[in-house]
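queue> pop job 88
queue> type: inverse folding (structure -> sequence)
queue> payload:
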C-alpha cells in the first residue's frame, strides 16, 4: 500500500551519529558493503565525496580525501584478488579443525 509523503512523519528514517565510533571500522564496513554489491571504486569514491550522502561525506571530511581514497583502492584490490574466497577458505579450514 502506497503512503503519501508527510513532512512531519515520525516513521521517516533519519541517520544519526553515535559518539565514540571507530571511523576506520565504519569506513571498512561501508566500502566492503558496496564492493559486495558490485559498485566500482569510482562509484564508491563519489559516495564519499558527495555532501548529499551525510554519513559517508562526514567520514570523508574527518579522515581526508587521500586516506579514504587509499582505503577504497586497497580494499577494491583485495576484492579483485579473491579476498572473499580467501576469507571463506580460512573460515572453512577453521570449521574443519573444530570438528
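queue> result:
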Amino acid at each position: 500500500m502506497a503512503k503519501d509523503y508527510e513532512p512531519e512523519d515520525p516513521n521517516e528514517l533519519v541517520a544519526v551519529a553515535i559518539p565514540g565510533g571507530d571511523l576506520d571500522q565504519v569506513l571498512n564496513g561501508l566500502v566492503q558493503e558496496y564492493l559486495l554489491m558490485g559498485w566500482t571504486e569510482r562509484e564508491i569514491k563519489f559516495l564519499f565525496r558527495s555532501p548529499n550522502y551525510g554519513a559517508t561525506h562526514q567520514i570523508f571530511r574527518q579522515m581526508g580525501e587521500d586516506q579514504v581514497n587509499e582505503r577504497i583502492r586497497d580494499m577494491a584490490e583485495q576484492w579483485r584478488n579473491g579476498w572473499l574466497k580467501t576469507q571463506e577458505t580460512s573460515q572453512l579450514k577453521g570449521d574443519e579443525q573444530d570438528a
